[in-house]
Design a protein that fits this description.
With about 150 residues, the protein is α/β, with parallel strands linked by helices. The chain folds into 2 domains: about 80 residues; about 50 residues, no CATH class. It has 4 helices and 7 strands. The longest helix is centred in the last third of the chain and has 14 residues. It is elongated. The two termini are about 30 Å apart. The relative contact order is 0.15. The structure holds zinc ion. Zinc ion (ZN) binds next to loops.
């Protein structure tokens, strides 16, 4: 199952990407425009169909919990911080040497592991931000997340 969020659930889409669950973002105005094979996540009741899930909540945290209740198989797909939050592309491991000069000096000095988006070349590393996001996601989902970027 491929997930696609429309513009009414942009923040949810970003949270899914943080969890490592691929989710496209697209402006969908009509049921016929839902990408083939995708489950559309939306707030718009006008898009109700067998290929959409209408999220009856405004807050992304509640939307996320609702989605996991409706689609429990998503639990198995969680791989935190393995996707680019902007492109939805799978990040590639890169060596420290490769990111020299491309990340701030203090980051280069303190971080050991880096990943890069093959589409936009943005570089990711587990920093303090990462820890906060993980904690927030764990609070929302009510269970710990294993994170293969730790250590
Ligand atoms: Zn990217």
């Amino acid at each position: 199952m491929r997930l696609c969020g429309d513009l009414t659930v942009g923040r949810l889409v970003k949270w899914l990407r943080m969890l490592g669950i691929p989710c496209d973002l697209a402006a969908v105005k009509r049921v016929e425009a839902i990408p083939e094979g995708a489950l559309l996540l939306t707030r718009a009741t006008s898009l109700k169909s067998k290929n959409s899930l209408i999220l009856p909540y405004e807050k992304p945290a509640e939307q996320l919990r609702y989605l996991f209740r409706k689609e429990p198989t998503l639990w198995e797909k969680i791989r935190p911080f393995t996707l680019c939050l902007l492109c939805n592309a799978e990040l590639e491991e890169v060596s420290r040497e490769e990111v020299f000069g491309l990340v701030p000096d203090h980051v280069f000095k303190t971080q050991k592991r880096f990943r890069r988006c093959p589409q936009c070349n943005r570089i990711y590393w587990p920093g303090s931000h990462h820890g906060l996001m993980k904690k927030r996601l764990e609070e929302v989902l009510g269970r710990p997340l294993t994170d293969d970027q730790d250590g």
